[in-house]
Amino acid sequence: MSNVERTGLATDESSVGDLLPSALIAAASVAFLASWATIFQWLDETGTYLGVPLFHLLGGSLFVLAAGLVILGLGSHFGYIDGTPSGNAGMTVGVVFGLLWAVVGGLVAAQWGGNAPVVWLGGAVVFGLLGAGAALSPREDLGSTLPIALLLAMVGYVVVAGHINAGWTWTPGWTGAEFPGSELVPALVIHGSLLGIWSAAKAKRGYGAQGRQYGAYWLIGVAVFSMLGVLGLLIAFIVVQGLDVMLTGASLTGGSLHLFGVSIPWLEVPFVTNVPGGLFVDIPGVMPAVLGTLWLVLGAVSFAVPLGVGAAIFLTEYAEQGRFTQLVEVATNGLWSTPSIVFGLFGLAFLVPRISGGNSIFVGQLVLGFMLLPLVLITSREAIKAVPDEYRDASAALGVTKWETIRSVVVPAALPGVITGIILGVGRIAGETAPLLLVFGGSPFPSAGPQVLQSFRFSTTPPFVTNDALLSPASALPYQLYSSITAGVFDHPAFSSTEYGWGTALVLLLVVIGLYAVGVGSRIYFRRKLHNE
Amino acid sequence: MTRDEYQQSLAALRTDVLAMGDLVADRLDRALAALSTVDESAARAVADADDAVDQRYLDLESECIQLLARQQPVASDLRFVASSFKIVTDLERVGDLAVNLAQYTLAADRKRFEEVDLSSIGDLARDMLDDAMTAYRTDDAALCRAIAERDDELDALCQRASERVVRDLIEHEVDEGDSWAVEELMDDVSRLLLVVRDLERVGDHAVNIAARTLYMAESDPSLV
Amino acid sequence: MSNARVESEDVQTIEQTTTGETDERVREAWLDYEFTGETKLSTTDLDVYYGDDHALKGVSIDIPAESVTALIGPSGCGKSTFLRCLNRMNDRIAAASVDGSVELDGEEVYQDGINLVELRKRVGMVFQAPNPFPKSVRDNISYGPRKHGDIETGLLARLFGRDDREKEQELVERSLKNAALWDEVNDRLDDNALGLSGGQQQRLCIARCLATDPEVILMDEPASALDPIATAKIEDLIDDLAEEYTVVIVTHNMQQAARISDQTAVFLTGGQLVEYGDTDQIFENPRSQRVEDYITGKFG
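ok -> structure tokens follow
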């Protein structure tokens, strides 16, 4: 019989072991959110809530966490709480706790022993080893709760006792930085509550492999939630700032739609449909910029996609996997990581003199196309490689040539992946500003949109097709945004520069979301065609 | 070697068939001995023990079927199982013939027709059976062919014995008024003829066994 | 079970049986094997190397027309390699080099200037794992003829006055019926082929192969990925196909080879063809002791 410890299949639901961690996680989450709110100034750090100063609440929560963790650890150790702790808490816990204790030790040593490296380094090492040892030597239930509980209790005490408070700053002698208390306390509470959540989650499922999984789940959950929170905050902020501006003068039926000679009452959003300047405009709009952005995206996509997909096909299907393809991969990665301002500079120095003499839409399209190309190439290559070889074998066995196979089987199967690449790329270039500043931007608030379609002229001499509109500068949404918010050159009684900028930002957001929708929709369509079960 | 269990099953089948052969040969021996020494109790023992042989036969039959169903033997293994299947049928028939012989012993009065040499016929048949089982045990094709040839000798012996009986019958003087004596004579004659016929049959079964064994060993169906 | 190429006492070496006897006596015996009917495919001294690995050693074999020939042998013995030589699918493997001759109806397959498209139209292949395209059932079947120019539908074709939609429908119906799949899918010809069950997908691949009107059908373990019922249907199908087509099937399932084939060729470790003859004879009384040992399972 193996020497694995046998535990029962189902653990008893010991109520303390289940409710206490849940309560701790709840309390720690509240403290986490409250600290973020304090940093964002949504809560006043000098104010009192529930009759207690805020910082005392935050510090107190750390205390509560520490106490709870001690109860859980000791309870499991003495058998009052059921669990399946491992022999020790594991390397991760050891390293993390060791590092935390090392930091504390170093700070304390530096504070009381002077700034000599020997002192704080020595203090850091000693405390670090102590902390790691405390985490690793006992069983997991003690090792993952007691060291951190002690640390949390210390921090909590320091905060509650007022040693660090809103007005406190710390300028340690060994660096010129200042650590203000109003930021330091929430930061400490954020980290402390995360650690508390981690340990409490592990305790809730009785430690061991199950506990660690649950702990990881909570940590990852907090990370995801934070990411979503940031995203939501960003979008909400833009919407809140720009919605009023965008909907100025808007109405459901004020506008009209002309279809087959009949006028139908339709949505009217003058901010979107008007031009920014001009004599008869009460509400300046962003239409020319919208058109400019759309033309840029269209041009970049039509330049980059055929080139990128074609190159990907060549590299995957025809080229021998060797030096050449590796070189191309390196070059593509390099191109993808190049800053956008460098692309703009290239356009300015090389393309502008040769093509249009000055800023123009066409050069802007080319530059943005260059930026889109590497992403399309990389994702298309992956998508084509992902098409299983069985299809190619089957096609070859039917006597179909290689090119026909690529055309009829490989590319349709790779299409969803290729479209994903295009969506990602379009999202990036629709909002690029730096190259536009250099090669594209004309007047940021033109009185009319670029009349590209109307400006095509055919001639009998090369280059046979000219388009003045394409060769002239224009405006685009990011460019306009930059101009109005930074340069403040917008001049109209209806809005201030900033307000106009927020409205533009919201429109840009909507345009990008619209492009995404088109991309995602087409990807769903092609994916359905491939997998229609 | 791979398929251990399968190889073991094949070996077990061969052993079991040989065991049945031994059993049947033993029965035949006893019956012949009882016939020549007119030992009624021995004869009765043989006659009553036929069930054991039949049971063996059924067991072996199902053993073959199981092998076929589970292991799907091919080539020489297939020939082996198929042949064994047929051989046990022949063995079972020999067992029945031994019982017949025992029953004749119980019923007959051997005082007459002592000239007819049943024991040499019986010995020959017994030898052929022994050789057939030996050939089966050792896959000996030459022996199989030799047995087939000896069958002619056995047939000749039996033929002569039957003629002898008939001639004696014709020459025998019986008081034709004594109907009981006539009946007794007729019974003895017919019984004797049947014994001779049965002994010939034992030889035929031995030849069958040799024929199947030849097919098993060399895929040669010429004797079948 | 050891890798077939690694020496172990269970594995047959080229010249010896498991009991150590040499098997010279039958090396040449089966070359006299004769069958009635004409030869569809024949190979002479076919050698295949994967880099330094000599995968197939001097295989010479004649495959009769309109019958089923099975290739059996332990894994790694070269039977799939041999099969792939017959329609030059080994060309797709960079490291493979082929020596020797393969003839289809007397015409050399490995000559310069061979039209691969024509060759693979006449010699079709079905693979081990079903691999239908991610298209509808109809498109799967008409894929080959479409690419060969035999069928044209669509806007452009109609512009030029050619509309083969009826021809396509008839081709699809015929191929599916020949593959014993028509009854099961005739109401979902436009559904994606990936939605069919494994056995149906394999029969679809067979139908797709039949659509190009081949003369020879090569099958590389077509039923090994399928459950017994699907396997049984494929075996029945092969039986029917043999009336019109020449079928060469690689299988590691000996009972399957015994059930469906007319001729069987036995390859043993090392890429050597060891015996070739009527299936009945091979499975009742093989001439080679090594083959006897292999098919009775004395070594694997």
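Chain C touches chain A through 31 residues (CB under 8 Å).
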